[in-house]
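Re: the 266-residue chain
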Amino acid sequence: MGETGFIGAGKCGMSLAYYFRSKGIKISGFSSRGNNTEDFEFLSCAELLRRSDVIFITVTDTAIPQIWNEIRHMDLTDKIICHCSGSVSSEIFEGANPETVCSVHPMMAFNSRHTSIEAISKAFFTIEGGKTAVDKVSEILSICDNNFKVITSENKAKYHAAACFASNFVVSVCYEAVKLLTECGFNKDEARKALSNLMRCNMENIIDVGCERAITGPAIRGDTVTLDRHMKVLDEQERILYNALTDVILDMKEKIEGNENYNSDL
């Protein structure tokens, strides 16, 4: 296993570098606009490329093309180039050897430049791109003992949308729940505490038994009286969201009822 370098010393790049190093992956250093890579060596782009076999571009999605344009005319012989965007595929590396570029995305949120090694060790990764690059990154993740899945370029945006549903949109739905409770006289802290066990139990059930077996509530029971009662106390935006989410549950209910092998206490 050769050396791995990073272009971009933000939360993702720094956290991955610490993590990889803890697993025995040799880190060549960082190239960054600011010399702020702490105990990793700061190098020019040219020197980083010279020393590294694998280069992770860990910058914002909009900055990836700019970094690629800066390095694409350098000597990339036998180099693996990858970026860590969840929504952008390896096709962003225009003019590259398609076999030696890829995207690798950890399905987690980096909360600082020192995201815990334990948290990253539990992260699921996806890889997309050319076979040579995918094989090399797969080797790194296998050494780290992370679970990962190889996906196709055409599915990259859909994959990232799935992650948004499971992450960002869960937060937005919980925000709505907290807001409704504050309208009932709770303060925000009380609302979060009141909902905390419900939210944790739901997520644990989803993980343990799947969405179909975890779903409860009036929509799955066909309780239209309660659904109508809810609609009467919601504002227009809340009704739109409530209706959309109820439609998903009704679609789920239809599929459950169409499965003879499915048995659940609703």
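The first strand starts at residue 4 and ends at 7.
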